[in-house]
Task: inverse folding
């Protein structure tokens, strides 16, 4: 893997985001990603991650799940590892396994903070909601939102905590 490879992957995803691969061209996009992945070493963690993202983004969370698992098992870590856990949890929820998504993302709340913190909370909130735990999910979303408000941060954070605090 080198900068040229990363640039080609980034260009493929940018084209996807611009809408150059609508639903009827989804298989073509996945083939493009497969072609890029073929240039990686066979044991690369990045290969199954990129393929999982392509399946996920083209409406196949069921096919993405095993690939995310494979990428993480091969040692995908850091920023992409965190993305893989978020996306895996989302895919698990979409295929009817939200409890596993909760188990996967809950430890992320205590991990190192980065720009994906709100995505962790949003995805975890959806998983919790799918399990009928809406108050917990709403609490996570309010807490994430509070940091972005021009005022009322402390109040919203307190309200978020009160949603899940034991009633006294």
Result:
């Amino acid at each position: 893997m080198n900068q040229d490879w990363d640039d080609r992957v980034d260009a493929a995803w940018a084209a996807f985001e611009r809408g150059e691969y609508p639903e009827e061209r989804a298989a073509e996009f996945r083939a493009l990603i497969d072609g890029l992945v073929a240039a990686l070493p066979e044991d690369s963690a990045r290969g199954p991650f990129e393929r999982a993202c392509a399946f996920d983004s083209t409406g196949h969370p069921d096919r993405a799940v095993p690939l995310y698992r494979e990428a993480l098992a091969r040692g995908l870590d850091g920023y992409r590892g965190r993305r893989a856990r978020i996306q895996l949890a989302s895919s698990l929820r979409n295929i009817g396994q939200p409890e596993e998504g909760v188990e996967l993302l809950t430890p992320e709340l205590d991990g190192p903070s980065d720009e994906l913190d709100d995505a962790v909370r949003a995805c975890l909130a959806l998983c919790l909601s799918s399990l009928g735990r809406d108050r917990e999910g709403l609490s996570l979303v309010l807490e994430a939102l509070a940091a972005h408000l021009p005022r009322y941060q402390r109040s919203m954070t307190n309200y978020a905590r009160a949603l899940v605090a034991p009633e006294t």
Notes: The CA atoms of residues 113 and 147 lie 13 Å apart. Residues 3-132 form a domain with the Serine Threonine Protein Phosphatase 5, Tetratricopeptide repeat fold (CATH 1.25.40.10). The chain has two domains: 3-132, 134-168.
